[in-house]
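Exercise 7b. Backbone tokens:
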């Protein structure tokens, strides 16, 4: 006999898009039948509702539409990726709700459609340094970044800073030291995102800035990308 308690699994995160869609439909069916509605009456993410309402149904529909569009036109992979990230976030929240109701009761978890697990493993390695796909200032006072796809990361971050600042990276901490001389402008801008695409706004225009980016997960932060020189419009 194991003393480890059972809980609803988040194995759906690693499923293919096709399997995610089938799994989502099954969860909605189970939670939406008479028994499911009686046991899970107030889900934090509604079972149904069309966009702009965020519901399990709308997340499924959007992922299905983006997947079909990608199959017809592989250049639409970025839109599919963003839809899949939104889908995972919605079902992650719903799974937490199921666990809050089930309280480790395997029969109740079965009523939700989620798989059961006793897995207590946690992420033990920090992500590898991300690959910079593109970095460009396309609007005045703005800067857009795209990193490569990275499966060992749950989020990404970036920092822009003027050349008169010196970053020191120590684990998950970044410290800046600087000496201002005359009227030389100094600026630091941090961004964190669940998406590998993120943007900086309200930057000082017509200056030079350096960019570093990183990936992170529950175990910590990756090494940053090497500082790159960039011009802000």
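Sequence design result:
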């Amino acid at each position: 006999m194991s003393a480890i308690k059972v809980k609803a699994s988040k194995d759906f995160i690693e499923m293919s898009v096709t399997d995610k869609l089938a799994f989502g439909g099954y969860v909605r069916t189970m939670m939406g039948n008479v028994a499911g509605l009686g046991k899970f009456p107030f889900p934090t993410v509604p079972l149904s509702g069309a966009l702009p309402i965020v519901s399990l149904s709308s997340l499924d529909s959007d992922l299905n539409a983006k997947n079909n569009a990608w199959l017809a036109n592989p250049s639409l992979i970025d839109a599919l990726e963003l839809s899949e990230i939104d889908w995972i976030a919605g079902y992650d929240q719903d799974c937490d709700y199921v666990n809050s109701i089930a309280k480790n009761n395997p029969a109740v978890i079965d009523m939700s459609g989620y798989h059961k697990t006793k897995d207590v493993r946690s992420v033990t390695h920090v992500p590898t340094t991300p690959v910079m796909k593109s970095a460009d200032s396309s609007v005045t006072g703005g800067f857009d970044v795209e990193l490569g796809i990275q499966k060992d990361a749950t989020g990404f971050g970036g920092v822009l800073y003027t050349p008169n600042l010196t970053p020191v990276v120590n684990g998950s901490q970044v410290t800046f030291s600087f000496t201002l001389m005359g009227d030389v402008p100094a600026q630091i801008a941090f961004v964190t995102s669940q998406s590998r695409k993120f943007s900086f706004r309200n930057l000082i225009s017509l200056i030079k800035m350096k960019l570093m980016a990183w990936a992170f997960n529950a175990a910590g932060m990756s090494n940053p990308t090497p500082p790159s020189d960039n011009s802000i419009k």
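Instructor comment: The CA atoms of residues 100 and 194 lie 24 Å apart. The chain has five helices and twelve strands.
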